[in-house]
């Protein structure tokens, strides 16, 4: 694409002496290739502007950098024999996302993003499944990776990859004929403008509770980052789905934003008007739910997996799936064919004495509360939970998680999650301060073995925090560790 075309799409129409063809866009000087555009972004550790000379040496012919109120909006920079055109904008990260999407185009025609503290991965997984059941070629993209079909292993991804990687993944999906993509919008991703270039067909917002305050600092800033999905990214006139049972502050902010932006608002949940949950009756395998669509009750639906929160996520996926209201009953009828999401309230082992073990990805106070409350109705004996907290992440979550476990569980073991660069004993101590009667077993393997051995008839063991993860990060090393596989193999031995 010509530089002038790219700039004019962004609303900049300078008279350029030269108009180079831009073959690639990047914000990482280490990835600059010849004829590329380098966007200098100010991050937490570096100001990308200091890498401009390196980028030009590596072949960048155009540079986009932050407007500084002194220099003209367009200029040029020589690095030895090499010259690049310099363009100054007010928000380089926003520019990067747009430019990356234009250069990577065409992208899949139907892209939907889901945000919220908890439930993003589950919702996008369910949405992908629903689309596939309706005959679409669909993918989901997020914490669980890029998933295209049930029988192909997922490609790894961050929850929301950086703008360039995201555009490139979407372009790859488009080339393999994927038309429908459901992706997770993390608060980091929204705050850093990673999704700003995507033409969203619809968006969903599940809930907002405490997480990531290490990064956002205040809950207001965290909410504001997430609100960007509706406020800045979803085009007017498109479908916005919210869970009507979320906290009132976020609910009010979302409904007001949706109204101001002219979105078609749909809600789901006990307090909803579009898709109201009338009853969710737990069964040994999952739930039987009754819902009303715009006030009209529909036939019972069986959801074949446990976790009361998965009822909300499945309803949100359905409300994001139908395009016209007339399609809604057919979409809702498909919910009974959904498969569970790996590591989300997943029943991984049954012991010969009738006890069972579940693995879940609860790593926030709200998630831990939801999964423990979900498992209580299935517990005929005692409810035992094993969990820790990730290092280098919001430390305020730790005592809150301890408090919740102390209120709901009968037995608690505090162990290590991913300590990362932190001292694991200090993390455990912060949780234990709020649940002093818990036992402490730092070694996660030993904690799980101990938990399984202590299970009595009808007891339930919940191993929380790492879900689908297959590694444990200690320091900067990731050691192989898989709660699900380990629990299965230890349970076989314990059951003998
Ligand atoms: C906290 C955070 O989100 N950090 C992201 C951020 O890093 P940063 O601000 O430290 O960047 P920086 O190192 O200061 O660099 C600034 C700029 O200089 C560039 N640079 C840097 C070095 C160099 O030699 N040359 C160069 O050009 C960088 O490419 C960048 O554009 O920008 C980087 C480039 O895009 C990201 O890789 C990095 O994500 C890191 C790896 C990360 O761990 N992020 C996590 C916290 C995250 O985003 N997680 C969420 C999930 C959260 C959830 O659970 O909901 C996710 O969406 O995955
Ligand atoms: N709708 C929900 N409400 C409350 N808790 C939920 C909800 N959905 C999921 N959870 C809890 O959050 C955990 C993580 O779920 P999921 O992976 O779907 O969320 P996520 O938003 O993608 O998380 P992450 O921020 O790590 O990507 C689940 O294992 C469960 O404990
Ligand atoms: N996306 C989340 C995942 C947390 C998972 C938990 N096991 C931990 O390591 O804290 C994060 O990076 O904060
Ligand atoms: Mg996720």
From TrEMBL:
<keyword id="KW-0573">Peptidoglycan synthesis</keyword>
<feature type="modified residue" description="N6-carboxylysine">
    <location>
        <position position="226"/>
    </location>
</feature>
<dbReference type="InterPro" id="IPR013221">
    <property type="entry name" value="Mur_ligase_cen"/>
</dbReference>
<feature type="domain" description="Mur ligase N-terminal catalytic">
    <location>
        <begin position="21"/>
        <end position="101"/>
    </location>
</feature>
<dbReference type="Pfam" id="PF02875">
    <property type="entry name" value="Mur_ligase_C"/>
</dbReference>
<keyword id="KW-0547">Nucleotide-binding</keyword>
<dbReference type="InterPro" id="IPR036565">
    <property type="entry name" value="Mur-like_cat_sf"/>
</dbReference>
<keyword id="KW-0961">Cell wall biogenesis/degradation</keyword>
<dbReference type="GO" id="GO:0016874">
    <property type="term" value="F:ligase activity"/>
</dbReference>
<comment type="similarity">
    <text>Belongs to the MurCDEF family. MurE subfamily.</text>
</comment>
<keyword id="KW-0436">Ligase</keyword>
<keyword id="KW-0067">ATP-binding</keyword>
<dbReference type="InterPro" id="IPR035911">
    <property type="entry name" value="MurE/MurF_N"/>
</dbReference>
<dbReference type="InterPro" id="IPR005761">
    <property type="entry name" value="UDP-N-AcMur-Glu-dNH2Pim_ligase"/>
</dbReference>
<dbReference type="InterPro" id="IPR000713">
    <property type="entry name" value="Mur_ligase_N"/>
</dbReference>
<feature type="binding site">
    <location>
        <position position="465"/>
    </location>
    <ligand>
        <name>meso-2,6-diaminopimelate</name>
    </ligand>
</feature>
<feature type="binding site">
    <location>
        <position position="29"/>
    </location>
    <ligand>
        <name>UDP-N-acetyl-alpha-D-muramoyl-L-alanyl-D-glutamate</name>
    </ligand>
</feature>
<protein>
    <recommendedName>
        <fullName>UDP-N-acetylmuramoyl-L-alanyl-D-glutamate--2,6-diaminopimelate ligase</fullName>
        <ecNumber>6.3.2.13</ecNumber>
    </recommendedName>
</protein>
<feature type="binding site">
    <location>
        <begin position="116"/>
        <end position="122"/>
    </location>
    <ligand>
        <name>ATP</name>
    </ligand>
</feature>
<keyword id="KW-0132">Cell division</keyword>
<feature type="binding site">
    <location>
        <position position="186"/>
    </location>
    <ligand>
        <name>UDP-N-acetyl-alpha-D-muramoyl-L-alanyl-D-glutamate</name>
    </ligand>
</feature>
<feature type="binding site">
    <location>
        <position position="192"/>
    </location>
    <ligand>
        <name>UDP-N-acetyl-alpha-D-muramoyl-L-alanyl-D-glutamate</name>
    </ligand>
</feature>
<feature type="binding site">
    <location>
        <begin position="159"/>
        <end position="160"/>
    </location>
    <ligand>
        <name>UDP-N-acetyl-alpha-D-muramoyl-L-alanyl-D-glutamate</name>
    </ligand>
</feature>
<dbReference type="Pfam" id="PF01225">
    <property type="entry name" value="Mur_ligase"/>
</dbReference>
<feature type="short sequence motif" description="Meso-diaminopimelate recognition motif">
    <location>
        <begin position="417"/>
        <end position="420"/>
    </location>
</feature>
<feature type="binding site">
    <location>
        <position position="393"/>
    </location>
    <ligand>
        <name>meso-2,6-diaminopimelate</name>
    </ligand>
</feature>
<keyword id="KW-0963">Cytoplasm</keyword>
<comment type="pathway">
    <text>Cell wall biogenesis; peptidoglycan biosynthesis.</text>
</comment>
<comment type="function">
    <text>Catalyzes the addition of meso-diaminopimelic acid to the nucleotide precursor UDP-N-acetylmuramoyl-L-alanyl-D-glutamate (UMAG) in the biosynthesis of bacterial cell-wall peptidoglycan.</text>
</comment>
<feature type="binding site">
    <location>
        <begin position="417"/>
        <end position="420"/>
    </location>
    <ligand>
        <name>meso-2,6-diaminopimelate</name>
    </ligand>
</feature>
<feature type="binding site">
    <location>
        <position position="194"/>
    </location>
    <ligand>
        <name>UDP-N-acetyl-alpha-D-muramoyl-L-alanyl-D-glutamate</name>
    </ligand>
</feature>
<feature type="domain" description="Mur ligase C-terminal">
    <location>
        <begin position="343"/>
        <end position="467"/>
    </location>
</feature>
<feature type="binding site">
    <location>
        <position position="469"/>
    </location>
    <ligand>
        <name>meso-2,6-diaminopimelate</name>
    </ligand>
</feature>
<keyword id="KW-0460">Magnesium</keyword>
<dbReference type="InterPro" id="IPR036615">
    <property type="entry name" value="Mur_ligase_C_dom_sf"/>
</dbReference>
<dbReference type="Pfam" id="PF08245">
    <property type="entry name" value="Mur_ligase_M"/>
</dbReference>
<keyword id="KW-0131">Cell cycle</keyword>
<dbReference type="InterPro" id="IPR004101">
    <property type="entry name" value="Mur_ligase_C"/>
</dbReference>
<feature type="domain" description="Mur ligase central">
    <location>
        <begin position="114"/>
        <end position="320"/>
    </location>
</feature>
<keyword id="KW-0133">Cell shape</keyword>
């Amino acid at each position: 694409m010509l530089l002038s075309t790219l700039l004019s799409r962004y609303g900049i129409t300078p008279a350029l002496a030269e108009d180079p063809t831009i073959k690639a866009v990047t914000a990482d000087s280490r990835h600059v290739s010849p004829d590329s555009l380098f966007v200098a972004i100010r991050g937490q550790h570096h100001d990308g502007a200091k890498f401009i000379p390196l980028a030009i040496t590596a072949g960048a012919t155009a540079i986009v950098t932050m407007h500084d109120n002194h220099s003209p909006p367009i200029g040029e920079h020589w690095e030895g024999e090499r010259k690049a055109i310099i363009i100054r904008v007010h928000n380089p990260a926003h520019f990067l996302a747009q430019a990356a999407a234009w250069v990577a185009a065409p992208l899949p025609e139907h892209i939907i993003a889901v945000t919220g503290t908890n439930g993003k991965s589950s919702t996008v997984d369910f949405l992908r499944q629903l689309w596939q059941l309706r005959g679409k070629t669909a993918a989901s993209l997020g914490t669980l990776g890029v998933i295209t079909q049930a029988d192909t292993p997922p490609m790894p991804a961050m929850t929301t990859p950086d703008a360039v990687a995201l555009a490139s993944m979407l372009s790859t999906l488009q080339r393999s004929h994927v038309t429908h993509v459901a992706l997770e919008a993390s608060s980091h991703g929204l705050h850093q403008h990673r999704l700003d270039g995507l033409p969203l067909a619809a968006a969903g917002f599940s809930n907002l509770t405490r997480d990531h305050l290490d990064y956002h600092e205040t809950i207001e800033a965290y909410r504001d980052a997430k609100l960007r999905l509706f406020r800045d990214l979803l085009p007017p006139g498109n479908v916005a789905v919210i869970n009507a049972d979320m906290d009132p502050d976020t609910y009010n902010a979302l409904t007001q934003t949706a109204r101001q932006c002219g979105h078609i608002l749909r809600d789901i949940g006990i307090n909803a008007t579009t898709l109201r949950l009338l009853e969710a009756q737990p069964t040994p395998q999952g739930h039987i739910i009754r819902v009303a669509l715009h006030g009209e009750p529909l036939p019972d639906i069986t959801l074949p997996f446990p976790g009361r929160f998965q009822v909300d996520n499945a309803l949100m996926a359905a409300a994001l799936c139908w395009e016209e209201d007339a399609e809604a009953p057919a979409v809702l009828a498909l919910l009974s064919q959904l498969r569970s999401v790996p590591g989300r309230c997943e029943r991984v082992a049954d012991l010969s004495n009738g006890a069972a073990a579940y693995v879940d990805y609860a790593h926030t106070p709200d998630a831990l509360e939801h999964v423990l409350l979900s498992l209580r109705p299935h517990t005929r004996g005692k409810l035992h939970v094993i969990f820790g907290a990730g290092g280098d992440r919001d430390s305020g979550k730790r005592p809150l998680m301890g408090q919740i476990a102390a209120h709901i569980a009968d037995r608690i073991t505090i162990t290590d999650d991913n300590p990362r660069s932190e001292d694991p004993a200090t993390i455990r101590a912060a949780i234990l301060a709020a649940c002093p009667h818990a036992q402490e077993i730092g070694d996660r393997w030993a904690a799980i073995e101990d938990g399984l051995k202590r299970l009595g008839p009808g007891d339930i063991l919940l191993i929380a925090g790492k879900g689908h993860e297959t590694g444990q990060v200690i320091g900067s090393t990731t050691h192989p560790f898989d709660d699900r596989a380990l629990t299965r193999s230890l349970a076989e031995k314990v059951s003998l």
